[in-house]
Amino acid sequence: MGLDMYAMISDESFEREVDFKPGQDVGELHYWRKHPNLHGWMKTLYFEKGGEQQDFNCTPVTLTETDLARLEADIEAGNLPPTEGFFFGASDGSEVEDDLAFIAKARKAIVDGDTVFYYAWW
Q1: Superkingdom of this entry's organism (predicted)?
Q2: How far apart are CA 38 and CA 96, in angstroms?
Q3: Average pLDDT, the chain
């Protein structure tokens, strides 16, 4: 039990950037376990893009190249928002290298024509 976080890829394009239902043809690009500060950053992005689910659980948000550039800058500056939640665990700063590796994979997926989206289950 806890915060499981996924970056997924799909060859689909979605009508909305949030709260969409991906089809069956999705793949896992990256996985995090209990990295609440990254989840908090994604939650902010979700609401900026018009998300409506208050607890931001089990709902996707797409990630564009612009989003990835913002995320990269915030990771490198240590600006992921401190985030807490039931069984979320704690981010301790050791995740930076893994987060940047995710960004590199996500950028490649976008160049290859895939849609990248974030999804968490807690």
Answers
A1: Bacteria
A2: 10
A3: 96
How does DSSP assign 9-64, residue by residue? EES---SSSBS----S-EEEEEEEES-HHHHHHHHHHHHHTT---TT--S--EEE-
Structure tokens at 76: 């490198």
- Helix, strand, coil: what percent of the chain each, to 5? 35, 20, 45
Cα separation of 58 and 84, whole Å? 17
**Would you say 41 and 5 are in contact if contact means Cβ atoms under 8 Å apart?**
no
**Rounded to 5 degrees, what are φ and ψ at 70?**
-65, -45
Per the CB < 8 A criterion, the answer to whether 59 and 53 are in contact is: yes
Sequence-distant (≥ 6) Cβ neighbours of residue 15 within 8 angstroms: none
